[in-house]
Amino acid sequence: MNTILLVDDDRYVTDGLLKHIPWEDMGVRIVGTAADGAEGLSKFRELRPDFVITDIYMPTMDGFQLTEAIHAIDPHVPVVILSGYDDLANARKAVSTGIHHFLLKPPSLSEIEFVVREVLQQLNESQERDELLTSYLQQQEMVRRSMKDAFFRDLLSTRYEADELPGKRIAFMGLPESTAVQALTLSLVRSDASARREEREWQLLRFGTGNIIREMLNAGLSGHPLLTAEVLEYSDQEFVVIFLSDGAPEADRLQFILQISDAMLKNILQYMKLSVLAGLGTLRRGYHQLMGSYLESRSAVEIAEMNEWNRVYAYSEQEPHESEASKNVSVDAVRHLHDAIFQKQWQLAYELWSKLGAELAGGGVSLPVCKGVCSGIASALWTAAQASDIGEDAAGQGLEELLLRLNRSGSARQMIDWMEETVARLVARHREQQTGKRSNALVNSVIQDYIERCYHEELSLERIAANLHVNRNYLSQLFKRVTGEPFVNYLNNYRIRKAIELIGTGKYMVYEISERVGFQNSTYFSQVFKSITGYSPSEYNRL
User: Fold this and answer.
1) Whole-angstrom distance, CA of residue 186 vs CA of residue 312
2) CA distance 23 to 17
3) In this predicted model, what pLDDT tens digit does every residue of 390-430 receive, in sequence order?
4) pLDDT tens-digit profile of 333-369?
5) Dist CA 30 CA 477 (whole Å)
6) What is 12-45 written as a DSSP string?
7) Which helix (H) or strand (E) element contains residue 156?
8) Where is the HTH araC/xylS-type domain (predicted)?
9) How far apart are the C-alpha atoms of 209 and 275, rounded to whole Å?
């Protein structure tokens, strides 16, 4: 219900209006009265009525002065003048000062009802227009955000020529017609501990990470009008920040991007407790070059994975290191070692490290490269130890101390010896905690005789337990203690690895691969595939 403020120094007039006019029948309510313009202005500030009915001639402040004061606060508030003087000059002044209606005292009931209903109609029409405009602008902004997301996703996966880009669509999205682009990929490290969390908890961590990225970009870019950024949640573990540079000096731009990116990584680690692999592609001219910068950022992320986490690796800076590392260190050996560590296959990890350590100690590997490889392995060891029942003591100390010890190493030999000691300590601690050969043999039987041989069939832990003549719950707990993950997760991971092998052949459709690796429902297969790899089967095929 709309509200009215009555302002008149004649108490009889005010009482008459209150008693004889059926305000509520007209859909309005008198929210207050005032005896002069000054009091009327005070009441307006306090009560904020929808419109005002006021006399002209009053002490302290007349009706025209009151109207000007009200419109200085809110120029859209309607004001109706009541005057006891039939004065054409007053009527003209009322129109010139923005007064909506001019009524002579005493007005009839029909006159007041007509004026009030007309003012209400104007108010409601204005409110409807404002609501429609607000709704339209909100929907338009939502459409623009959705179009931007689809536009940049397409650019990350498809190569275009400059003349193939949708110019009108780019203009509608509020993007510059032409710009330089640069991709920053932030890949969240989902450790074994976070992988065991409920999916909802992981999504909350991911949501919080996205907020940190956007808030820091909004705050940081506010002082750089020539640099803007778009953020894509590209997969379950990957964010892609696309920097758009409109004439910013190259040195200033790169320095700023590296600074704000490093700050983001520190905040994500501090508040979300998540490590990040970060890679920055080179600056490219034009939207159609974005895919090239993104692929470079992915290459830099791969280097980050093998070196120190939670810092930004720029592609142009990492190419020489990558080339140097590939000449002296087997990338596959490092990858296999990381996989064994995060799967907590400690004996295998020790064997793989022994081979890699011998390769590093063989000579020809520079100290910086050796430090990079060992830092990545030390980070993986520390993270896996915290996520298991081995604990921090087995790793010897905290992650910062581990990395500090590595950085203080004066030679590759000294570093390799220390790594040998650390890995050996973890393996020994793991052996101590095993329940015996029977437990390992039972789990090995599940893995070798059922998962690895029959993964393409319909498998259940109940059926396997019955075949092995053991209790289903006991087998479930034992499997998780020995392997570090539930039976279903282990089975799904194995099936997806087999699916990746089939995808690589290029011979099968998605539904055929789904059936061949033991999934009866291709939709469920795609969901599991994406949750593990970060890509759908069709997307993975295009990598």
Assistant:
1) 9
2) 9
3) 544 444 456 777 777 676 655 567 677 778 887 777 777 66
4) 888 888 888 887 877 888 888 888 887 776 656 666 7
5) 73
6) HHHHHHHHHS-TGGGTEEEEEEESSHHHHHHHHH
7) helix 109-157
8) 445-543
9) 11
Lookup: tokens for 285:
């001219």
Q: Letter for the amino acid at 110? A: S
Q: Is 380 exposed, middle or buried (0-12, 13-18, 19+ CB in 10 A)?
A: buried
* Per-residue tokens: 120: 């209400």
Residue 311's contacts (CB-CB under 8 Å, 6 or more residues apart) are: 262, 265, 278, 304
Tokens representing 485?
């993950």
Helix intervals (H) in 277-330: 290-306, 315-328
Q: Which of 432, 439, 404 is closest to 346 using CA atoms?
A: 432
- CA 335 to CA 305: how far, in whole Å? 9
Q: What gap in Å lies between CA 212 and CA 272, rounded to an integer?
A: 9
**C-beta of residue 321 within 8 angstroms of C-beta of residue 373:** no
The tokens of 187 are what?
């890949």
Query: What angle is formed at CA 131 by the lines to CA 117 and CA 215, rounded to 5 degrees?
Result: 150
Picking from 528, 454, 470, 481, the residue whose alpha carbon sits closest to that of residue 462 is 470
Whether the CB-CB separation of 451 and 461 falls below 8 Å is answered with no
CA–CA separation, 390 vs 392, rounded Å? 7
End-to-end, the C-alpha distance of the chain in Å comes to: 61
